[in-house]
Request: fold
Amino acid sequence: MSKVLVYGSGGRDHCLADKYANSQHVDKVFFLPGNPGVLYTPKGKKEMIESVRLSDSNDFNEVARFCTEHNVSLVDVGSENPLSRGLADVLSQQNIPTIGPLKEFARIESDRAFTNFLLSAANVPKPEYRVFFDPVEAADYVKNIGYQVVVKANGLAAGKGALCCDNADDALAAIDDIMVKKVFGDSGNRVVIEQRKYGTEISFFAYLDGKHVLPLKMFCQDYKPAFDPDDHEAIEKFGGNLNTGGTGCYCPHKLVSDSLVNRIIKEIVNPVVNCIYNDYGWNYKGVLYFGLNLDDDNNLEVFEINVRHGDPECEVLMRKLSTDLFELGMAVWEGRLDEIKQVWNQQHYVDLIAMEGRSKASRGWNPGYPKRYGKGHKIEGLDDLEPGLAVYFAGVDTHEERGLVTYGGRVLHLISGDETLEKAREKAYRNIEKIAFVDHNKENASCMRYRKTIGL
Reply:
């Protein structure tokens, strides 16, 4: 039997750890640095998944030593930040099988300008764009461009760096936030400004092993805005419907069909992978995430590429996938993806994300995620959930008196599955109403919030 290490701490990483623990080949999954919520799950209680704390989990050499000492057979790097800092490089140099691209290849996500150059070289359709280093030049551009734009921080921004603008004033404010106020830090040293497109969002994934590509012939839909579009009162009070790292997801996407899957592979995936393998000569081992837009005229365009699974897309895709993830992962490392058969079950899945909402602060109020949010609110109701649901923890911690408490903005994912999307939605919403984040500063009222229109 084998041991796997999942490097990460969020809901996507917990989901991957859970999926690896289901493998017939795996008897132990280390979750580094993990999160305390795992201890409240069946696999955590049975020590099938174990959160690991090192003296410095950001010391990648120490991570490699842990893997060697504990006979880890495979490492899956769940998120983009450690990849952009070279975790896969350190592990691969010591011949530790790793799912995740090398630092140089992670530029596909950490440098949006490079991504656009790659897409142009691959002759893949994408919105018109310009790159700016100077906020004054960027401001002059949006004043005269004549159409709506999206202003994107060039670097990593935890999934929140793309600001959709309704008009020039919005675009100017976005440029000021990103490039002058540096709300995303050094990721805003330059911006990509691209034409805003309307249509249906598609999240599409593929595994690469350096020689072959395995496009996952199943896709899902992610929801980025903080609030439901008709929740006008909340949006006005919050100061706008800001983008988040994701507020929910469902799978399969309503547009899933053999013809559309084949079209995405032919028009998007294959040209990009061909460019990576043959033009750049990259030995890329890991995941590519294609964020796509399909408009009303049936035009298919790429608005982003990431170098890892999506969050919350991973949480529904891994529930839908019946293929053994350890077998898939080892095939990535060994260059055998052509041997893997992908199998999907017949269920529909919905992921509702329980977020920190408006809460009482010691002075004033916390508006809630993705703005400033409170922490330390006791999480209640998990023991009341119906059997068969999955809960993946993200922003949680433990408190000596309160037990499991909130710590991040996106606190947990509640995933339900059923034979139809409607039944899966009904089950998910029926159960998330049982969960509360107890605001100890406001007469123990719940400060949890979640979107009501996921899957509609």
